[in-house]
Specification:
Layout (H helix, E strand, L loop, with lengths): L2 E3 L11 E2 L5 E4 L2 E3 L5 H11 L5 E2 H8 L8 H18 L5 E4 L3 E5 L6 H17 L3 H12 L13 H27 L3 H14 L4 H13 L3 H19 L5 H11 L54 H10 L1 H4 L3 E6 L6 H16 L4 E5 L10 H11 L11 H11 L6 E7 L2 H4 L10 E6 L10 E5 L4 H12 L1 H6 L1 H10 L4 H13 L5 H9 L1 H7 L1 E2 L2 E2 H10 L3 H10 L7 E2 L1 H7 L11 H5 L4 E5 L5 E4 L2 H14 L2 H27 L17 H7 L3 H7 L1 H13 L3 H10 L1 H7 L2 H18 L2 H17 L3 H18 L2 H17 L3 H17 L3 H17 L3 H18 L2 H17 L3 H18 L2 H17 L3 H17 L3 H15 L8
Parallel strand pairs: 8-11, 8-12, 9-10, 10-11
Antiparallel strand pairs: 1-12, 2-3, 3-4, 5-7, 6-7, 13-14, 15-17, 16-17
Helix pairs in contact: 1-3, 4-5, 5-6, 5-11, 6-8, 7-8, 8-9, 8-10, 9-10, 11-13, 14-15, 17-19, 17-20, 19-21, 22-27, 24-27, 25-28, 28-30, 28-31, 28-32, 31-32, 31-34, 32-34, 32-35, 34-35, 35-36, 35-37, 36-37, 37-38, 38-39, 39-40, 39-41, 40-41, 41-42, 41-43, 42-43, 43-44, 44-45
Length: 971
Amino acid sequence: MEHLAGHEGSGAAAAPFRVLGPLEVSGDRGTVSVASGRQETVLGALVLELNRVVETAYLVDAIWAHHPPKTARAQVQICISRLRKALSAGGVDAIIETRARGYVLRAPEDATDVGTFRRLVTEAHALARDGRKMPAVLTLRTATALWRGRCLAGVPSEVLAGTAAQLDESRLEAIETAMRLLLELGRHEHVVGELMQLVANHPLRERLRGHLMLALYRSGRQAEALDIYHQGRALLTEELGLDPGRELRDLAQAILTDDPALAPDGEPEPRADVPTHVPQPEQEPGADPEPVVVPRQLPPDIGDFVADDTIVPALCAAVTEGQVKGPLSVALVLGGPGVGKSTLATHVAHRLAAEYFPDGQLYCDLRGLGGQPVDPAQALGRFLRALGVPGEDIPHALDECAEMYRSLIADRRILVLLDDAVSESQVLPLLPGTGSSAVLVTSRGLLTALPGAHRFDVTPLSTERSLHLLGRIIGERRVEAETEAARALARLVGGLPLALRIVGARLAARPHWSLASLWSRLENEHRRLDELAHGELSVRASLSRSHAGLAAADRHLLCLLGLAEGTVIPGWLGAALVDDRTPCPTDLLEPLIDMRLLDITAMDRGGEPRYGLSPLARTFTRERLAAEIPEAERVAAVRRMVGGWLALAGRAHEKIYGGAYTLVPGRAERWYPPEDVVQRCLPDPLGWLESEQGNLVSAVELAARFGLDELCWELATTLVTLFEARGCPDLWEHTHRVALAAVQEAGNERGQAAVLGSLGTLHLYRGEYEAAGPYLSAALGMFERLGEMRGQALCLRDLARIERHHGDDDRAMALYESAERDFVRAEDVIGRACVLGEMAHIAMRRGDFTRARSHLDVALGICRSTGFDRGQALVLRRMGQLLMHQRQSEAAERTFLEVLAMVEASGDLVGEGYVLHDLGRVNVDLRHVERAVEYYSRSARIRERILDHGGAAAVRADIVAVLGRPMTPVG
């Protein structure tokens, strides 16, 4: 959805739990981060059944519609535990209680947007029964404006999809009811446009089609009404093989025969609580009445206006609300430069002007010429003159001007459109004093101090609506002929309406240009803003106005943000760029948010905002960066930024491993964000690494580009923690090739050794044993010259794996023993534990079960003492293999199932693939054919997913071997 309409203060205040769209949760401490997938599914199910018990079996079905794992109930328990922590940390007024058969989300009845929607619909039906149709319509508008997209959009659950579809149906029913009431009120001419859009989006809904036919007929458009019927009949026949229902057929016949019963019932009903005439001041007997000046200052509307289905009706309802309820209606249309705020506001103003505000419309561009904000006294002077006050009678003092202005329009229905407001102090003196008038304000800032205002955030258009806008400008056929090029253009400009209008204008002016040729011109980032200018339209000029409104320090920070390669960045990064040690680094970004030059795009796992620059804003900042920031300052900023990523990645590794183990130490300078920021980032260190993967890889590339070789290699090797656990060999290789080039160019021998050794480990990970040897041997020689014990130990460990692959267990054991000694000297206990696990494997293959168990006991003790969960899973897997060697298959299966639960809970795909293979083998020993094949198949799928094709092939060979043997199926 391109536009998000909010109705604060309209009876639909934001509930803590929102499911009418993507799942969102907010508490006293802001937005609550809920992990996608299982946690979203569980919480969605609980919210939909608020204060009612949801059985565990239902939650299992909601998560795994088919073939739930044996650990399903345990995983649901884990989800519930994490949700409880998240709700508590976010200050949400709700608790999840455990019941005998499931769970219940306990919260106030109005804690969900679903509950609010149902309450408002009930109120609307009651108002309609009492004959108060317009208040009923406005209440239904408020209810349907709660939707932010499809119910539970993005929650991957077939079970919940049915309930979500029912709620989406309820929204459409509410819209249909509102349309019916408006037709009964005689508002047929004013609903035609909205009904056309609704029918286009829901072509099979006969009731909406009937409403549109009736609205067109009553508007004197009989032929169009019948055409709408014939289109629907053809569509129903083609799609479903059905004829329209009797109600629609009867309506078409009545329209065809011009049936008098279709005429509106009498005159249109006056709006509730709104005077039907404008009181005039008393005149002296016999005096001629003074003419009333009716200003018509609105800028022209546009014929090719494009918006989504919800924002226009929701904004119309907000602007006209005061005429029903009494207090002044103020609607704020907020958004960044070029996003279409003014176009939307002007379109709505024209839509409402004749019916709701017949006494005039006032307009002022508050940004002013040259970007200088208009003084409110100057704006009041213009309004007073437009209302017929002679210039010499206009007071000089602001307060007196405001009093005269409010008195003149107190009993009149006037719409005031204030465009591009800079601050609340500009707007407040321009507000009328009564609810008969209304105010529509657009702004790049937030204007949070305006009392009782409804806020509407306007965001860029989706790709489909971008294509629709282009088609309106240059013709649908031209867009359809180059659909992919049109989509690429829309993505390139980020769906920004101003940019799309410029693109359309240039293409319309040059019919011989292809869309692909213009995309090629725009693809060059250095020329992009030059190309996005046509006549008086200019993206650069629009962005420059917002840029000029910033303080010098904020402009400086905005420029430096152009250095960040990631599309979504964390809040601490701005502080790193300017080396500010403030305990609340996100405060530095707030001025950029206020001016809509930086967007809050999401919330991270710790509940902190995530930020992003639009594609064109990024291009603009990079222009300013090159022009305003010296190279030495840019390098220093990059050093701090990459140093921040390294500091956090290092802390994540330490949390996972229990210390800085298995990493070759370097000398790169870290930049540490405030400790509370670190703690919020890393409750789930592996999850954090995965969520920041794009930024971390970009940081490696950025460090190389700026010649920061020490930072580059340290960050690259630290990220192996992520790449190994999540199965990302391609990223592992890419970052290390980048780092290797950087350290070789700088002559950094330690960095070369670390990267070469890690590349050797990568080849082993891929099963490329012959390719791994030269890398490891070269790295070992360098580490020996440097006297780097940990690096030596890591190379010896991996060289031992090669010997094992070649079948030389004696040589492998000797190398493992050397590696263990070096790990001990380096005080790397986790490195030692990993080596002991491999030595145990050799011992068990030799039948020396006592020594194998001894090694494993020591390794498990180390992993438990440091809190290295993944290491514990690795050691327990070896213990399961030991039990298999000892023919204790049932005990081995129990151990492997314990390991499977651990790796699934941590998201360790590599470990999951291996232990599923082990479970397949042990079930072969137990003569459980179907179960063995199931485990093998799951293992193969995971190994294919992590690009371990050799491992997948080995598993499939085991499947063939199992199915080729006569065995007793599991009963």
